[in-house]
What does this fold into?
Amino acid sequence: MNIMPVKNVYPCFLAKSNTLHYTHSMQLRNFSLSILFTLTLCLFPQADEEGNSNAYNYSADGITCTYSAEVEFPLNLHFELSAESDADINDIRLHYTVEQDSFAEVVSEVFIEFLPGTAVDVQWTWDMRRTGGLPPGTVVEYWWTVEDTDGDDITTAPAMLQYNDDRYLWQSITEDKVTVYWYQGARSFAEEIMSAAQLALSRLAEDTGAYPRKEVSLYIYASSQELLGAMIFPQEWTGGAAYTRHGVIVIGINPGNLAWGKGAIAHELAHLIVHQMVFNPYNQIPTWLSEGLAMYNEGEMGATFIAYLEKGIRDDNLISVRSLASPFSAYADRSYLSYAQSYSLVEFLIDGYGQAKMLELLNTFSRGSSYDGALETVYGFDMEGLDSLWRTEIKQKYPVGTATTSLP
Ligand SMILES: [Zn+2]
It folds into this structure.
């Protein structure tokens, strides 16, 4: 079975920066846990004649194969195979699968075009510009099938590779489930990022009961420019991205924008952890909940967002909770208001009904519940009910005529 690459792109503001960014939820290929069991078989490739230490050898039924792969981050992944047999080799296929959250194993199969012969060299390049990129550290498993005219048909041993960004010399520190990778700055810089990440996780657990189910990797690029160089077709204002299915966050932080970076990490971590919690084959969570939790995890709502919220109330121009369940408007004004309302809705639910209810809501969503169904089960009101209760409350909280902040 093959699934076409699906890319969900959720635009997110990072409240403590003027920079917009996108959160990418990449679901390129699925992954089977079975590869864990083949790990020890294939992690130790032998060097080939050219000294290529990535090369694997495999022989069976009179067919001999040498194969390797080379990462050219972030654009390409090159695969090569040399095969020999007594009879003409007439069918070669490459198979690969990517490690990520999924519900079914999906293996991609590539038919290789070549001239049949008793000794053949073939190669194939996975061009990430055609499929969307993979985050650094992604594990890819691949193997080949080779057939000759005698009817011999072999499947090589699987090989593993890590799609690493080897353009930089990464260092890492790990605490609990979080690993921070960085290449510029002292260890104290990475430690400061780690404390921010741990603090953000504690805050998220305190507010929602959500905690990391799996490992999370934070790749800290030294600038937004270098971050952009690690992504496929990034928007020029991208400040960071969360690959939720891979458990990876990439972000551009240096000592000069560390304060912004801490907020961005809190935001993206909330996206990842909430994704891990609610991931199910049936349904996602509404956008206002996902973005609202991410913003709420950063801390207080920023002045700009408050100003948009006050203007929305004043102009009687607020967006319905039902509309906010879908991806947000691309227009800046509506987008700011969407994020501000999302924050406010999450604040309304957490402050008014508590952490246990929010945890129950996330657990209900993890069972694939509908938006209305989950709200009704946990709070006793649907999206319209939430809309009306929330509007009553914020009109008291931000009475018309008392706006204290102005729009930029
Ligand atoms: Zn976001």
